[in-house]
Design goal:
With about 400 residues, this protein is α/β, with parallel strands linked by helices. Helices cover about 40% and strands about 25% of the residues. A hairpin with a 2-residue loop joins strand 3 and strand 4. The protein is elongated. About 5% of the residues have low confidence. It comes from Clostridium brassicae. This is SAM-dependent methyltransferase. One of its GO terms (molecular function) is methyltransferase activity.
């Protein structure tokens, strides 16, 4: 290859080198093919401990990306042309070079045409459980075809690429979860890496889904931190991240109240953390001054035996009504405390009540330092209802 083409190739490689250094956590591989006449020779490189392990002509070396590119350019002098592919999660960068020209373009990693074909062949467009278990006629955020590796890893899709019949409901739920959060990411004040803390993460399915969506669909730089007191589920999450190649994730077996982050946290998530574990997550989000706090509460037991309100005496004498009122009081007071701490709060249905009665999502976006009127209202509620909520206690203790 002539010097002019080699010079242009080196400039393109410089740009890719900067891209790698800025976000190496989403790098997947490099593939290069050299050609002279009918002969073709291929090289392949993968990530290895901050370097790239590159194999060419049966010889494997591990070196910095800069040194690997120097090696490729030196080799290119011996050939008429090359094709180079730099693969990231969700995007491939293709460079084609010969003695006449060198050009570069971005291409999607997977073909969007597979989506309709996969859905068409899935043979699952059926209605069961009062219509809640069917694939919906909607434009999914987590698309079949493109997200197959993720969907298989979280056990929603078969090895053959079909959504499992008993997982259609779960697939619809996770997709709606992404839909409810989608607009939030664009409004974050931070324009760099979005750091997301998942409190009581369990197997971290929704963090994996959000990781995929932010990285491979929205092309946003993100980092996930999962917390859970169970070593087993943390090890399971670590294994799944390794299987998927999601290096922008870390997991810790630690109690929520004991965690101290080493970076600014932009979003705190809590999905179905049981009873006062939700309050721990909310308190941690407030303490960390997180830009966004998202909670889907579960198991509202704490205030059930605390609250009393004489005007409702004839209503809450019925156990089921008292329990439902406790749910509303708990989440209502959580929302009021978030408002008192400067958050703009909305409470929405996360999924249909046919799926689960625990279907509320609390979304809080930091807009100011504090709201004294909301705090006064919170204190009045404590006195009127004769309650001392865990969220209030945690904030005072921490």
């Amino acid at each position: 290859m002539n010097k002019q083409s080699l010079t242009k190739l080196k400039l393109f490689f410089m740009g890719i080198e900067n891209r790698f250094s800025e976000n190496k956590s989403i790098f997947k591989s490099i593939n290069v093919s050299f050609k002279t006449g009918l002969k073709e020779f291929s090289g392949h490189g993968v990530y290895s401990e901050d370097n790239i392990k590159y194999n060419f002509n049966g010889i494997t070396i591990a070196n910095s990306i800069n040194k690997i590119f120097e090696n490729i350019c030196a080799e290119a002098e011996k050939y008429d042309s090359l094709q180079f592919i730099y693969s990231e999660r969700g995007t491939d960068i293709l460079i084609s070079a010969d003695n006449k020209n060198v050009f570069m373009k971005n291409v999607e990693s997977e073909n969007d045409n597979t989506i309709k074909e996969t859905v068409k062949n899935s043979n699952q467009l059926c209605n069961t459980h009062e219509g809640t278990s069917s694939l919906l006629n909607r434009d999914y955020y987590i698309k079949i075809g493109k997200a197959d590796n993720l969907l298989k890893e979280i056990n929603i899709m078969t090895k053959e690429g079909k959504i499992k019949n008993d997982k259609i409901r779960k697939y619809n739920q996770i997709d709606h979860y992404v839909e409810l959060l989608d607009g939030i990411f664009n409004d974050l004040p931070n324009k760099g890496t979005i750091n997301i803390l998942d409190c009581g993460c369990g197997k971290s399915y929704l963090s994996f889904v959000l990781n995929y969506y932010l990285t491979e669909v929205k092309k946003m730089k993100c980092h996930f931190i999962g917390l859970d007191y169970s070593e087993n589920v943390i090890n399971s999450s670590k294994k799944m991240a390794q299987n998927l190649g999601y290096r922008n994730m870390e997991f810790h077996a630690v109690d929520i109240k004991d965690y101290v982050p080493d970076k600014k946290v932009n979003i705190v998530l809590s999905l179905h953390a049981c009873d006062t574990a939700t309050d721990m997550a909310l308190a941690l989000g407030i303490k960390l001054n997180s830009d966004v706090i998202i909670a889907v509460p579960c198991c509202h037991r704490e205030l059930l035996n605390q609250y009393s309100y004489n005007p409702f005496k004839s209503i809450i004498k019925h156990g089921i009504l008292k329990a439902r009122m406790a749910d509303i009081i708990t989440d209502g007071m959580r929302s009021t405390m978030l408002e008192a701490k400067g958050y703009d709060v909305s409470v929405v249905e996360y999924i249909s009540p046919l799926e689960t009665p625990k279907n509320l999502m609390i979304r809080a976006f930091k807009v100011k330092e504090s709201d004294d009127d909301a705090m006064d209202e919170y204190h009045n509620l404590m006195n009127s209802l004769n309650v001392y909520p865990a969220l209030y206690r945690y904030l005072n203790e921490w």
